Amino acid sequence: MKEDIIPFYTPSDKVIVKSEDCYLYDSEGNKYIDFESGVWCSNIGHGNGKINSVIEKQINETIHHGYYFRNKLAEQLSLKLQELIGFKGGASVFLSSGSEAVNLAITLARYFTSKRKILKIHNSYLSAFGFGLLSNDNESLVNIKYNDLEAIDQIDFSDISALVIETGGASVDMVKFPDNDFVNKLIACSQKNKCLIIAEEVTTGMGRMGKWFGFQHYDFTPDMVVAGKALGNGYPISSVILNSTLADKFRQNSFRYAQSHQNDPLGCAIALEVIKTIETHNLIERASLTGEYFKTQLENLRSKYPEGVKETRTRGLMLAIELYDSINGAAISEELFENGFVAGFKLNTFRFLPPLTIKHSDIDQLIGKLDEILSRKRNSTN
Ligand SMILES: Cc1ncc(COP(=O)(O)O)c(C=O)c1O
Fold first, then answer.
1. φ, ψ for residue 108, nearest 5 deg
2. Is the C-beta atom of 297 inside 6 A of ligand 1?
3. Which residue positions in the chain have pLDDT lower than 50?
C-alpha cells in the first residue's frame, strides 16, 4: 500500500514496470520520456544492456567481500577517474551515495587542515544529511551568495578548511551556473588562504555538462572531486577522489573510515562499464551537441512567447526554462506528466536533465507540447 511508505515526497499513483534508454513504461501501458534521468542518475540511459550484462557477470563472481581483500576493479576504476580528472598519482574510495561521499570529503578536509568550517555557494545542495542543505543554520557552514564578487572580500577564511563548489546547481535553484569571474576570484582567495578545493560533481559529473566534470568548464584544478549518481547509472556508487598530494598524506597517516559497502566490486564493475560506454559512444560530445539543440529550441519558445517565458538557463544537458508568475506553471507541469513527459518543476521553472542519449525527436515532442500549451494559454487570455 502507498501508506506503507513514509510520505517524504508525493509520488503519482503510477507504477513503472520497465525502463529503457530515455523511456519509462507504467503498468497501464503508458510511456514517458524521462527528462530527469531518474534522479539525474541514468546518464547512459535506463536498462542499458551492457550494464545489465556486467551486473549478471559480476553477481556470479562476487558482489561484496569486505576489507580483508584487495579489489582490482576498484583500483582500475580509481586509476580511470584519476585520468579523467587529471589527478596522476591520486587515490579514491568508493561508497554508496553522493551525500555520504560529500560528507567524507569534508571530514577529510577538516582532518587535513585542522580547520572546522566549510565555504559553499548559497543554496548548494551538497547532501541529504550532515553538511547538506538541511543544516543551513549549521555554524560550520559559510554561505556566499551566487556571483557576488564583493562578498568574497568579506569572507573570514581563518577557520575555513575547504571550499565545496558545485559548478551547476540543479536542485535548490532549479539550474544555475556560477559566473567565471566569480569562480576565479573565489578559487584564488580560497587557495591564497590555504583552503582545500572540493569539486562537488555528484550531479554535474559523468558527461552531464558536455565535459566529464562540471569544473572543467572553469580554469581551476580541485584537490578533491566527489562523484556519485551517474557514476553507477542508477546503481548506488559514489566516490571521493584525491589528488596526489592529499593521497600521499593519507599513505603516510592512518585515518580510519569504514562503511559496509566501501569499494564493493559490483558498483566498481558497473562504473567501469559506464565510463567505457560514455567513451565508446562519444556521449560527452553528444551531450554537448544535443544540449545546444535543446537550448535553441527553448530559446525559440522564449522568442515566440515573450509574455510567458522569462528565462532559459542551460549548459550541456542541464537545462531550465523559467516562466513569468502570470503563467500557471504547476498546471502545465501536470499536463506534461499526463502526456508522458517527466520533467522537474519548482519555482515556476521546468528542469531538464535527460539521459545523454536523448534524441532530437524526444526533445521536439516536448517542445511541441510546451508550444501547444503556451499558445492555448495566450489565446485564452486574448
Ligand atoms: C549536487 C548534489 N550533491 C549531492 C547529492 C546527494 O546525492 P545522494 O542523493 O546520492 O545522496 C545530490 C542529490 O540530489 C546533489 O544534487
1. -65, -40
2. no
3. none
pLDDT number for residue 137: 57
Beta carbons of 272 and 80 less than 8 angstroms apart: yes
CA nearest ligand 1 atom 3, residue: 126
H or E element at residue 49: helix 49-61
- Ligand 1 center to 353 CA (angstroms): 14
Strands 16-20 and 341-342: unpaired
Q: What does pTM read for this prediction?
A: 0.97
Determine the residue of 9, 104, 135, 203 to mutate for testing ligand 1's pocket, defined as the one with the most ligand atoms within 8 A of the Cβ atom: 203
End-to-end CA distance of the chain: 46
Distance CA 171, CA 32 (A): 22
Residue 380's pLDDT is 84
SS3 178: coil
- Residue 241 to residue 246: CA distance in whole angstroms: 10
User: Over pLDDT 70: what percentage of the chain?
Assistant: 98
- 228 Cβ below 6 A of ligand 1: yes
Q: What is the number of the ligand 1 atom nearest to the C-alpha of 132?
A: 4
pLDDT 10s digits, 7-32: 998 899 999 999 999 999 999 999 99
**117-121, strands of its sheet edge to edge:** 91-95, 238-242, 224-227, 196-200, 160-165, 117-121, 141-144
DSSP H or E stretch at residue 358? none
Q: For residues 36 and 344, is the Cβ–Cβ distance under 8 A?
A: yes
What is the 125 CA–ligand 1 centroid distance (Å)?
A: 7
Within 10 Å of residue 132's Cβ, how many Cβ atoms?
A: 19
Centre of ligand 1 from the C-alpha of residue 363, in Å = 25
Domains defined for the chain, CATH in brackets: 2-34+282-381 (3.90.1150.10), 50-280 (3.40.640.10)
CA of 268 to the centre of ligand 1 (A): 19
